Amino acid sequence: MEVQLIEIAQFLGCEILGDKTAVISGVASLDKAQSGDLSFYTHHRYANQIKQSKATAFIISSKNKDQFINCTVIFSPNPYRDFARVINKWFNTFIFPDPNIHPTAIIGNNVEVAENCSIGAYCVIEDNVKIGTNTILFPFCYVGKNTTLGDLCILHPRVTLLERVIVGNRVIFHPGSVIGGDGFGFAPDPPQGYFKVPQIGWVEIADDVEIQCNTTIDRGMLGATRIGLGSKIDNLVQIAHNVEIGEHSVIVSQVGISGSSKVGNWVTLAGQVGLVGHIKIGDGAIVTAQSGVAKSIPPNMVVTGSPAQPIAKNRRALAEMNRISVLKKKIAELETRLNKLEKANK
What pLDDT, on a 0 to 100 scale, did the predictor assign at position 331? Predict the structure, then answer.
């Protein structure tokens, strides 16, 4: 694939500085780019890669133009997003399968499959399922009874949707994700052990959600577990029963969210964050990596640590911890001097 840079700029609605006739044949990161490649720059941590980069052109913010002297650049208000737009239009290698139902697929009773769907080999679709237009199920997917899939959804291989899952439009499930399994509910019943609490709820997933590999979302014990519009959930995330996640939130790898917690809109939970149950995370809050959250967080607050606390408070506490060794040394010196004085006065 070859495309003129001027065509890319027109597609993005952005200004070019430099060789407008340049031809782009690929995309790459700053350090891997070769002649013919388009790259992008967003963060000062990559500044040392600019001079060594062999890319033909770069998508950058206008505030960084002084770092790209004598380079061909496209000025963008959001370079990362626009770089992704270019990939999606000209260099995306994802191959959509042809619409059909593979003869090895097992289709239950009263199943509705809309136009232009693709049902791959060895998929199992149980009774009373509805699948919207242009939805793709790659091989070995399972869709449980009374589940609804919207339009333009993609289920990569070995996705499992159990019964009563409700999915909106343009939702992407990556391999190994399991949606609608039992929540972890057991009532203590000594001396016999534990009595399993039936999990009779469901899962609701709104439009434009993406759920990546080996993530699990449990159905509600009573009522729904909900994932809001446009939220993105990374690999290896555990979302327990009756959790509610708002719109456009980002849940990063290995996060665990305990039952009945509520996560607001535009929240970021970084890697390995843990939330106890029945708390609320306010809109716009950020929880940094490996934090343990034991109580609710107000909107727009950045917290860190375990137990999680406001980041400024946590930094002060860490600074005080670092002073302990210095204080111990001073105390030891004072004890030595005091002992010497006591001996001298005897």
Answer: 85
Give 237-306 as a DSSP string: -EE-TT-EE-TT-EE-TT-EE-TT-EE-TT-EE-TT-EE-SS-EE-TT-EE-TT-EE-S-B-TT-EEETT
Dihedral sign (CA 23, 27, 29, 35): negative
Q: Is residue 143 pLDDT above 90, yes or no? A: yes
Q: How far apart are CA 205 and CA 224, in angstroms?
A: 10
The domains found in the chain, sorted by start residue, are 3-91 (3.40.1390.10), 100-309 (2.160.10.10)
Record the tokens describing residue 39, joined without a space: 């790259």
CB 257 within 8 A of CB 267: no
* Residues annotated as catalytic (active site), given as ranges: 241
pLDDT attached to residue 168: 98
Which tokens hold the place of 288? 């940094």
pLDDT one-digit tens code per residue, 35-70: 999 999 998 888 889 889 999 999 999 999 889 989
Q: How many helices (H) and strands (E) does the chain have?
A: 3, 40
Task: Please say whether the dihedral angle defined by the alpha carbons of residues 43, 47, 48 and 53, taken in this order, is positive or negative.
Answer: positive
Calpha distance 242→333 (Å, rounded): 57
pTM for the whole thing?
Answer: 0.88
Cis amide bond preceding 307, omega within 30? yes
Q: Is the pLDDT of residue 321 over 80?
A: no
Provide the CA 225 distance to its chain's centre, in angstroms. 18
For residues 281 and 300, the answer to whether their CB atoms sit within 8 Å is: no
- Please say whether the beta carbons of 197 and 254 come within 8 A: no
The whole-number average pLDDT for the span 100-116 is 97
DSSP string, 180-240: EEPP--EEEETTTEEEEPP---EEEE-TT-EE-TT-EEEPPSSSEEEE-TT-EE-TT-EE-
| pLDDT score recorded for residue 341 | 79
More confident residue, 327 or 32: 32
